[in-house]
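Hi V.,

You were right to ask for the full record rather than a summary. Here it is.
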Amino acid sequence: MLRRLVNLFSQTYHKFPRKFWVVVGVNFIDGIGGTLLFPFFSLYITQKFEVGMTTAGIILGLFSIFGLIGSMVGGALTDKFGRRRLILFGLVFSALSTLSLGLVDTLAALYPLSIFVGLLSHLAMPAHQAMIADLLPEEKRSEGFGILRVVANMSWLIGPTIGGFVASRSFFLLFVTDAIISCCVAVLFYLYMPETKSAPKAREARENILSTFAGYFRVLRDGAFMAFILAAILMGMVYLQMYNSLSVYLRDNHGINPQGYGFLMSSSAITVILFQFWVSSVIKKRPPFLMLAFGTLFYVLGFSMFGLVSAYWLFILAVVIITIGEMLIMPTSQTLTANFAPEEMRGRYMAVYGLVWMIPSAIGPGLAGVILDNYNPNLLWYLGGGLCAVSAFSYFVLHLWLGRQERFAPVIEEEQLPVAA
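Predicted structure:
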């Protein structure tokens, strides 16, 4: 198995440009820092400030609401000024904001800080995705985004395991480590990654910043794209509970400590590392909206299981089932967004795609907190399974509506195409 993985990676490496692998490498390093901290942030808030999940959900919601604004600003700036500068700014600011979150001592101060951090820390998000779309031709995007999923989950394999160990001793050390890693990644990106945005056309060069922001109205008028976004938001509302509410739910209802939760996340990462290359090579040859519908059915089963089982190994099984769906959904969704977007508007389309995560992040933790604090906590996962079922049906309808369009056609026999040196 290991030899096959090595051979597969070697073959895959030569199919993609060097700049793509630079992006992959820095994302891997930065991902380790993020996964040290992010899965344990709800635990940090509830433990340090002695509040319930409802309060933690409100704080996480503020991050996401103002992160949405920051992402929209960043999408326009990405199309206007390029990808590289936005990404460098995001990395440096991530380090500073992470330290500030670790140093805050009062709950009252955490509210305005979450607004400020959320606003600026998401500026660079559209630039990352637009850069990948710049670097890869359409027929390679699904595999390219799949590769990013693999290295991201390699980060998840390392980060939560270490993070769970560190969090049980010092939450503040998590913040310090993440800040140091962000600074190191910024240096690497500055040294090795040039700008990928093509030179602007004459009309784009004349376009002022207000006209660039006005381009969002064109995105919002793209009815097919917005229907895709609405279906994905339903799914995202449930998916993000695995990273926000699940750790608190397992601690309070099943006595599972941070290290146990960290191992659950690592089991997801192992699944992606072992199978995402193969899955990506298969799904690019299948109708993309059908792949989304099929993948979301795995979410229906996996998230419903959290409310039905109590044995730890069954929680692991539920996470693996969800991860199978995730391997189908994530690279397909990102590829579809890139195919929806005209080249000169990739940053703004990617920013609107951020709604898939920003809106669920803004309202999902708070709603989940209300359920966990006031009702049968298992209800959270039953409702989640129902929302995923609605999302799966919506993707099937989108397949019937859009599936015949050439821009959403599966890749045919890509392996027979000559590979550029």
